[in-house]
Specification:
Elements lengths: L14 E5 L2 E5 L6 H18 L3 E5 L8 H16 L3 E5 L3 H9 L9 E2 L2 H8 L20 E2 L4 E2 L12
Parallel strand pairs: 2-3, 3-4, 4-5
Antiparallel strand pairs: 1-2, 6-7
């Protein structure tokens, strides 16, 4: 269905681009129901076309977000998740955050970052450790497992039978 068929032709679009293999949506327009509906469709289409597994919602252009707009953005993020993408909100201003907390907006599980660089860092693929490789010990720190922070010591057998 085209935008003219569903009445969204005159609705402002949100800028969506691909940067560093991440779909970045920079919201610079007021969030009406129609804007959110068009944005959701545009974002999910761009995510599908790009094959990216990451989305950043840049909200730095918004001076205010009420709890219903925030809930709608969470649904957009949920749609991205269903398509297999991780998403992060960036650029929330202190007044917006304070207002969301005061109005009881559901903020549980929302991934946020202070700026774009932090969001990109959060979305970088995590290197998986090889379980067959034992962690190295720091020289002079005999018996320290660096990853777990546990210490072990070689204690001579004191004649105590093992169980």
């Amino acid at each position: 269905m085209s935008y003219s068929e569903n009445g969204l032709a005159d609705v402002p679009a949100v800028a969506i681009q691909l940067s560093r293999d991440v779909v970045v949506a920079s919201i610079q327009v007021d969030l009406s129901e129609d804007v959110i509906e068009r944005f959701r469709g545009d974002l999910l289409q761009r995510l599908h076309e790009s094959g990216s597994d990451s989305v950043i919602l840049d909200l730095s252009g918004l001076e205010t977000i009420d709890s219903s707009e925030f809930a709608a953005l969470r649904l957009v993020m949920k749609g991205c998740e269903i398509m297999g993408a991780r998403s992060v909100m960036v650029g929330l201003k202190p007044g917006v955050v304070s207002s969301l907390v005061e109005t009881g907006a559901d903020i549980d599980g929302v991934r946020t970052a202070l700026d774009l660089d932090a969001a990109y860092a959060m979305l970088e693929p995590q290197q998986e450790s090889d379980p067959d490789i034992e962690p190295e010990l720091d020289p002079g720190e005999e018996g320290q497992d660096v990853e777990s922070g546990l210490f072990t010591a070689d204690i001579p057998d004191a004649g105590i039978p093992e169980r």
